[in-house]
Amino acid sequence: MSLTIAVPKGRLFEQTLDLFEKAGLITEKIDTNTRKLIISGNDYNFLMVRAKDVPVYVNQAVADIGIAGDDVLLEIDFDLYKPVDLGIGYCNIVVAGKPESRDLYFSNPSTLKIATKYPKIAHKFFSEKGIKIQIFELYGSVELAPLVEMADFIVDIVETGRTLKENGLVVIDNIRPSTAKLIVNRVSYKTKRKEILNLIEKLENYLEALYD
Ligand code: PRP
């Protein structure tokens, strides 16, 4: 029985294929230079989705498995099994803003305006600090919000730091690192147990050897 895997389009898909190849899960060459949304291999069908949509497809059991970062998983309430930290898709979840806003941040403000794609992460982080926030939930290009003075700061992921740098923004505070996890639908875990256990075992064996 083949497994259906929801993966974010782009870099994380390429990292996933690389990991699957190294772990001996796929041997055939899969063409990533395509606009196709369903990419079929011998043992796996990949569904190409937006990162935030991965848990939705897994929760609906349309995909047996998904690849999702902590940034995405901390925003959802679904009960998904997360057996493996894949160690790919590494980034940091941070508070960022204009360099001149640093004083405001460290002056014990009572309220801050925060633009983000991650409202739950932002709420939790600032409520633990006792700071009230007004959230502007955006879907992308979050770095624009402080530049046009819509928000004091952003809560966002930083991978290479290039987007912040090119927009004159800096990291003001670190929230947490994020890596990609394997997520599994709990029904699929029972009905396709053999295939899923084989996948988990091969990934774990490869990752253990890597970190030894
Ligand atoms: C993400 C994130 C930052 C950028 C960080 O956005 O929200 O904007 O990547 O990466 P960097 O540190 O390597 O520059 P994404 O590329 O997903 O685009 P979006 O703004 O459309 O969400």
Automatic annotation (TrEMBL):
Keywords: Amino-acid biosynthesis, ATP-binding, Cytoplasm, Glycosyltransferase, Histidine biosynthesis, Nucleotide-binding, Transferase. This is ATP phosphoribosyltransferase. It comes from the Bacteria. InterPro entries: ATP_PRibTrfase_cat, ATP_PRibTrfase_HisG, ATP_PRibTrfase_HisG_short. Its main location: cytoplasm. Coiled coil: none annotated. It comes from Venenivibrio stagnispumantis. Residues 50-204 form the ATP phosphoribosyltransferase catalytic domain. It is an enzyme of class 2 (transferase). Catalyzes the condensation of ATP and 5-phosphoribose 1-diphosphate to form N'-(5'-phosphoribosyl)-ATP (PR-ATP). Has a crucial role in the pathway because the rate of histidine biosynthesis seems to be controlled primarily by regulation of HisG enzymatic activity. Lacks the C-terminal regulatory region which is replaced by HisZ. The keyword Magnesium does not apply. Heteromultimer composed of HisG and HisZ subunits. Its EC number is 2.4.2.17. GO terms for biological process: L-histidine biosynthetic process. Belongs to the ATP phosphoribosyltransferase family. Short subfamily. It catalyses: 1-(5-phospho-beta-D-ribosyl)-ATP + diphosphate = 5-phospho-alpha-D-ribose 1-diphosphate + ATP. Pathway: Amino-acid biosynthesis; L-histidine biosynthesis; L-histidine from 5-phospho-alpha-D-ribose 1-diphosphate: step 1/9. It is found in: Cytoplasm. Gene3D superfamilies: Periplasmic binding protein-like II. GO terms for cellular component: cytoplasm. One of its GO terms (molecular function) is ATP binding.
